[in-house]
Amino acid sequence: MSTVGAAKNAASVSEARPEAIFREINADQSDEVVEIESACMSCFQNGITRVLPTKIPFFREVVIMSFKCEHCGYSNNEMQSASEIQKSGIRIELEAKTAADLNRRVVRSDNSSISIPEIELEIPVQSQKGEVTTVEGIIERTIAGLSQDQEKRRIDHPTEAASIDGFIERLRQLKEMQKPFRLLLEDISGNSFIENIVAPATDPQLKTAFFTRSKQQNELLGLYEQNHDDHLLQPIAEDEWPIENLQGEVLQFATNCPSCQAPCETNMKLTEIPHFKEVVIMATVCGSCGHKTNEVKSGGGVEKQGVRFKVSIASKDDLSRDVLKSETCSLSIPELDLEVGPHALCGRFTTIEGLLVAMRDQLDGTFFHDSADEKTKSKMDTFLETFDAVMKLEKVLTLVLEDPAGNTYVQSLSDDDTEADDKLIVERYDRSFDDNEELGLNDMKTENYEQDA
Fold it and tell me: Are 439 and 302 in contact (CB under 8 A)?
């Protein structure tokens, strides 16, 4: 093929590439809003629904919808998650103490439930549409819902109306922060979020936990288990597919781009890290938006004990240490009061410097720069300046990697295994019940499981 022909083909491929559907939310997305004529549920005249597919930084892809009727003035807005259902459900507990906690941003999907134990308020799953709101907005929406038809209810059912008025008054007391309260947000799809107002530091008033969905919860999401058929899976002969062939083979499977959701392919290869264990390396390159990702998953099982690495970073040699971070490993820097959970950064094979750069990129997002809160922006800019000083080795700090599954590895700089590395501390510890629950080990049965089957 000639150079001109190849150039034409490349140009035609470039023109055929679709634009990213979900771009990070910003003020210049007005041209991406789609307007649809739809019926008003209040006066049944035609109104306008505006739809915007976008991506919330540090969160996921969502579709924001807003409706307004020019005839009766009725308006409504809601949010629907456009990302995939997560592997685990999420449970978030917020302890609201001050008026600032009422302004925390909340992203909740259709599959989330909300409860406030202090006033026995509970909003069940799929009883409300998803929305982007605040803690105060949730309380205000509840008051508006209970106040609907109250005038008529006071005439027909005065006793019930008086009880509802008393409950509304208790909700108003929460808005006035007359006393602290807890807001519990549970989402079986894993697509809900409450803002950390002291980010990037750990928020002592915010607790997040992940849980495994039950069969009923999976069915509520439309996820059904396939019936097991002994004829579908046939055993492989002992020498038919040796492990050597698998290690030398690059496997491919179809997936969607995590950035623009366009179809693409992921390459996967099994390899072995010296002095450690086998790992699975996966890499994805999107032909539509050019987004690249790489991820490393452990090829072995869960270790008997968890592992904790403490790395002192004071020189360029410390930044060049090889690191295998598994998807269950959390990171922290005590000197900066910074903690990064295991789900914030995927598993990867990199260096200490690579981990620090990834952590900084996560923090240096448009979510804080576009915020109207000048105090939040100023605090984040100061923190990033301190982080840059650490990267330039102007400050000494300690990076802590903690993996309850024991599948994380940090390279030792000592030439002899018998010599100790002064800047690397390795600790093995017994997992707690919560650690085992997070890894799904408490419900795992390894003996006499044939009887249950």
Answer: yes
Report the residue count for the chain. 453
Q: What's the mean pLDDT when you consider all of the chain?
A: 80
- CA–CA separation, 22 and 63 (whole Å): 9
Contact 143, 172 (CB under 8 A): yes
Cα 364 to its chain centre, rounded Å, is: 17
Contact at 8 Å (CB) between 54 and 29?
yes
Tens-place pLDDT, residues 352-370 = 988 888 888 777 654 444 4
Q: What does the buried/exposed string (b/e) look like for 148-177 if buried means 16 or more CB atoms within 10 Å of the residue's CB?
A: eeeeebeeeeeeebeebeeebeebeebeeb
Cβ(146)–Cβ(165) under 8 Å?
no
d(CA 51, CA 49): 7
Q: Which pLDDT does position 122 carry in this prediction?
A: 92
- Both tokens of 260, joined, read 């623009």
Q: Region 260-283: what's the mean pLDDT?
A: 81
- Reported as a single tens digit per residue, the pLDDT across 1-31 is 443 444 444 344 344 445 555 665 555 666 6
- List the one residue out of 295, 358, 352 whose CA is nearest residue 323: 352
Residues 407 and 298: their CA atoms lie apart, in Å, by 6
Q: Residue 91 corresponds to which tokens in the numbers above? A: 């449970």
Strand partners, 397: 313
First to last CA, the chain: 60
| Percent of the chain whose pLDDT exceeds 90 | 18
